[in-house]
Amino acid sequence: MSRYAGHVQIVTTAHDGERRGVTITAACSVSDSPAMVLACVNASNSKNAIFEKSGHFALNALAADQIHLANAFSGRDPAMTPQERFALGDWQELATGAPVLKNALAAFDCRLVEYKVMATHMVLIGEVMGVSFGDHRPALIYKDRGYHTL
Ligand SMILES: Cc1cc2nc3c(=O)[nH]c(=O)nc-3n(C[C@H](O)[C@H](O)[C@H](O)COP(=O)(O)O)c2cc1C
Question: Which of 34, 108, 109, 112 is 20 to 30 Å from 22 at the Cα level?
Fold first, then answer.
């Protein structure tokens, strides 16, 4: 998988006053009518249970100038609290209440329509209820265990 070039995204949700965001590359489009996307997050991390509980998620596709967000939401500094991680970005809510990154290249606000644990990961399938776009600029890609720009 290190040879696979993936767009770096942050999948987010919120439930009972708690927000959660995880840096991922395992995400893609599923269908266009209705618009659906999927994201895969590690099921062995108990903090990810919130994605099922909340019933919604947002997929925020990062731009090259947002490496600091990718690092923060990948737990690189384990001492950082969720509040500190979210404080690094500017967030809004669209239709579902999931945190949507205002200046993401593109952000998809989704209601969870299917949830399935597949071996180590949970697959979240969402119907897109809202979309937002930041400025059009280079994307943040992960390949060969490092960040790249496209
Ligand atoms: C470039 C990159 C891609 C990642 N892709 C995924 C992914 O697709 N799914 C996943 O569950 N974790 C992925 N991770 C790891 C998670 O970001 C990390 O385990 C998680 O954010 C740890 O969060 P925590 O410290 O809040 O538990 C990726 C990390 C990086 C740096």
Answer: 34
Pocket test for ligand 1, best of 2, 52, 74 (most atoms within 8 A of CB): 74
Radius of gyration for the chain, computed over Cα atoms and rounded to the nearest angstrom: 14
Binned at pLDDT 50, 70 and 90, residue 58 comes out as: very high
**Structural domains counted in the chain:** 1
Provide the domain limits for residue 44.
6-149
CA of 74 to the centre of ligand 1 (A): 5
* CATH at 12: 2.30.110.10
Q: Whole-angstrom Cα distance, residue 129 to residue 143?
A: 30
% of the chain beyond a pLDDT of 90: 100
Is 145 part of any domain?
A: yes
**What pTM was estimated for this model as a whole?**
0.98
In tens, the pLDDT along 110-142 reads 999 999 999 999 999 999 999 999 999 999 999
84, 69 contact by CB (below 8 A): no
Does ligand 1 come within 6 angstroms of the Cβ of 73?
Answer: yes
Please state whether 146 falls in left (phi above 0), alpha (psi between -120 and 50) or beta: beta
